[in-house]
Design brief:
Elements: H1 2-5, H2 8-59, E1 77-80, E2 86-89, E3 93-97, H3 108-112, E4 130-144, E5 147-159, E6 164-172, H4 174-226, H5 241-290, H6 297-321, E7 330-332, H7 333-342, E8 351-355, E9 360-362, H8 365-382, E10 387-394, E11 397-404, H9 430-433, H10 438-448, E12 452-457, E13 463-470
Parallel strand pairs: 8-10
Antiparallel strand pairs: 1-2, 1-6, 3-4, 4-5, 5-6, 7-9, 10-11, 11-13, 12-13
Helix pairs in contact: 2-4, 5-6, 6-10, 8-10
Length: 474
């Protein structure tokens, strides 16, 4: 159960149903309130009309017995004087509340007073009374001819010379109550049914939409269990977010597979490269152990140095692969190049340095010095007569170019030489050609410093390696 309600499908269904339920309840409440208000206003208008109709007769001095009050149960009417005594009432009224008086029978004493019968004793017609423009309203109930109901009452005052009279007239609220009750019944029945429909549709739509996601999950679980990175998740033919998720997942699997393959190749190549100096060093030590006079100390030291350099390269590559970021502050790239060149006194060819100081970059001095050393070492191995290093500014970048006058790099191999353990001159001895890690390290370090390393043809026809690093300003 917890797993079911914890699914995206269940949460989407519950969420959509709750939103629709809240919206329907709010809308239904607004409709009911509006319906009730309109019907009450309609009943008030009917009560106003009846009250003014009777008030016009009272103002005209019509005798109370001749007022012709409504005698149906829909229009209870009372005429009350300023003392609250009932002067006239509609027929069959048995009980009433919400008006000026609860009396349902005219007060004989009030009718015997002068003016109480409508006309004066002398039979002269008095001037008509004044009907008030204001209407007082209220709600109550009444029993007419045995039928009890709720009413909306309106009161209109008539100002006569001898008294202030009030006409109360009621209009039934049965229509309003019936309509509201019917609407409530429809809502109580229809709302659950509509919510069931909404929940069912949402469940089906989300299930259909998430079906490819479940396929992706199953395939990823199978890939994890089998450790087969060559498998791929199914890609829907749609162009929605799920399809993009599947394509991104497959792209991630492809990159992961390539990374694992590179790691395996790296381990295999590293083992192969380490085997030669270790085997050579072991052979020399075993010979020296058996025949001390034959021990080649210089060769053993050379193999040890080579082994140490290879181990350092492998360790640096491992740190770069782990995402290590360069540490350090700002440094003068031109000064670093001149400093590194001045220490290369034993090189096969002299290194010419051109360029000015003052081009500052951010990063690790040791790693950037390693890049420069690797590039110059590579140029030394391939140059015919000269190696040239230039430092210059190019917009926001500081550029270091290392050129030689050797055979150059074929256009189709200019990216391959930056792969690990790649040597284009495989016929050379390992001692002369190195392990094939220098350029790979140089490019990785450049990338970690936010720069690039590319190769193209030099003006002299050899190779021109160009290192670009972002300058630090200010």
């Amino acid at each position: 159960m917890k797993r079911l309600f914890g699914s995206v499908r269940a949460q989407a269904t519950i969420g959509a149903t709750l939103v629709v339920a809240v919206a329907l309840i709010a809308a239904g409440t607004a409709v009911l309130l509006s319906l009730r208000s309109n019907l009450i206003q309609e009943a008030a208008a009917q009560a106003d009309a009846t009250a003014r109709q009777v008030a016009s007769k009272v103002a005209a001095r019509t005798a109370y017995e001749d007022l012709d009050l409504p005698d149906d149960e829909d229009r209870p009417v009372q005429v009350v004087d300023s003392k609250g005594r009932l002067l006239a009432v509609s027929d069959d009224l048995e009980r009433i509340s919400g008006t000026g008086t609860h009396a349902v029978r005219p007060d004989p004493a009030a009718l015997r007073e002068p003016g109480g019968g409508g006309d004066d004793d002398g039979g002269e017609r008095l001037e008509a009374g004044e009907i008030s423009d204001e209407v007082e309203r209220g709600e109550g109930s009444a029993t007419v001819d045995g039928h009890t109901a709720d009413y909306r009452f309106s009161a209109v005052e008539v100002e006569n010379d001898d008294d202030r009279l009030t006409v109360w007239a009621g209009a039934p609220l049965a229509a309003e109550q019936g309509a509201v009750s019917t609407a409530q019944t429809v809502m109580l029945i229809g709302l659950p049914l509509l919510l069931v429909v909404v929940a069912g549709v949402t469940w089906g739509v989300t299930g259909r939409a998430l079906k490819p996601v479940e396929g992706i999950r199953r395939e990823m679980a199978a890939i994890t269990a089998s450790e087969d990175l060559g498998r791929r998740v199914p890609e829907p033919s749609t162009h929605d977010e799920v399809a993009r998720l599947a394509r991104t997942t497959n792209a991630t699997l492809t990159a992961l597979e390539a990374s694992v393959e590179r790691q395996r190749s790296f381990v295999a190549d590293a083992s192969h490269e380490l085997r030669s100096p270790i085997a050579s060093l072991r052979t020399q030590l075993e010979v020296g152990l058996a025949h001390p006079e034959l021990l080649d100390v210089a060769g053993a030291v050379e193999d040890t140095v080579r082994l140490q350099a290879l181990a350092a390269d492998l360790l640096l590559l491992a740190r770069l692969d782990a995402g290590e970021r360069p540490t350090g502050g700002r440094l003068d790239l031109g000064a670093l190049v001149r400093e590194e060149a001045s220490q290369r006194v034993g090189d096969r060819l002299p290194v010419e340095v051109h360029g000015r100081a003052g081009l500052e970059v951010a990063g690790s001095r040791g790693q950037l010095a390693r890049v420069l050393g690797n590039l110059v070492d590579n140029a030394q191995r391939h140059a015919a007569s000269r190696v040239e290093v230039r430092v210059r500014a190019d917009g926001p970048d500081a550029v270091v170019s290392v050129a030689d006058d050797g055979a150059g790099v074929p256009a189709g191999e200019r990216e391959r030489i930056f792969e690990r353990f790649v040597r284009l001159d495989d016929a050379r001895s390992r001692d002369d050609g190195g392990a094939g890690l220098g350029l790979a390290i140089a490019r990785d370090v450049a990338a970690r410093h936010g720069g690039t390393l590319r190769v193209r043809e030099a003006p002299e026809g050899g190779a021109l390696f160009e290192l670009r690093l972002p300058r630090v300003r200010g």
